[in-house]
Amino acid sequence: MSKKLKWGIMGCAKIAQRAVIPGLHLSELNEAAAIASRDADKAKRTAEELNIGTAYDSYEALLADPSIDVIYIPLPNHLHKEWAIRAAEAGKHILCEKPLALNAHEAAEMAEAADKAGVLLSEAFMYRYHPRYDQIRDLIASGAIGEIRGIRSAFTFNNPNDSANVRFRKDWGGGSIYDVGCYPINAARLLLGQEPEAVTVNALFSPQHDDVDMMASGLIEFGGNVSLTFDCGMWAAFRNPLEVLGTDGIIEVPSAFVTPSEESGHIYLTTGGERRKIEVPYVNAYTEQADSIARSIASGTRLAFATSDAIRNMKVIDACLLSARERTRVTL
Hints:
Elements: E1 5-10, H1 14-25, E2 30-36, H2 40-49, E3 54-56, H3 59-64, E4 70-73, H4 80-89, E5 93-97, H5 104-117, E6 121-124, H6 131-142, E7 148-158, H7 176-192, E8 198-206, E9 212-222, E10 226-233, E11 235-239, E12 242-246, E13 249-253, E14 267-271, E15 274-278, H8 285-299, H9 307-326, E16 330-331
Parallel strand pairs: 1-2, 1-4, 2-3, 4-5, 5-6, 7-10
Antiparallel strand pairs: 7-11, 7-12, 8-9, 8-16, 9-10, 12-13, 13-14, 14-15
Helix pairs in contact: 1-8, 4-5, 5-9, 7-9
Domain GFO/IDH/MocA-like oxidoreductase: 133-252
Protein name: Putative dehydrogenase
GO molecular function, one term: nucleotide binding
């Protein structure tokens, strides 16, 4: 690429400040060029703190900037559809935080708008760009653990007292399934290379948190009698493991979705009763995500993970939420 792609950050969310913007700063293909907030002082302060050249006091002003190539949207879930469509109509490529939308229908509308505008729309599951997931898929394909019998995963954290948190607003798309349960679901689909047939989910809906699911446990049924068992929560101790169980071995990822340190990225393979570490080079998954998108834009090729994948993931999330609310098994 002859020049770096210029990114506009829509909002000053913590995920943007702590992860995505630092990842862009490490990139040789991308640049965090502008940030917008409806609070002008907040936008200016954040721009100064994070070494971003331009601050805007509205999202509209950011979209009107002709120098911006890509818009990153870390807004609350209920705003994803509106601003992704408006960004597409402004001719900007888009990286939108997960989950892409409130439901599969909204996600399809967003994808249609991006297609019509001729721009790329990507969902921000950064973990998929970490090289260890290619290694895990290669291990599975090689038969290292035999036939897959099941996947177990979890993503939980403990933050019930943050009363102003957008994750505790039901009408804004709050809840643990939307926020962290989407990761195990997405990972199982990625590793199995197929879509689920049915889901059954039990959840703790908390009246003191606007009746969002603060904890959920589920069974996701795939073909071949293989299932994902998962749990997710915002009112439990932190953890984010993943395990792939085979007839002849086990692949373990102790920190499956976040890699804050070099050691946290390694995976473990157990075969023949012996457990060994497979070392994985330390990379910034947010940088890898941005660079992959940049290469697709520069070459005019498809994204590593098509927007259609995000729509399919939303269909599973929709089914999980329905199952949890109605306490029933939902077929897909």
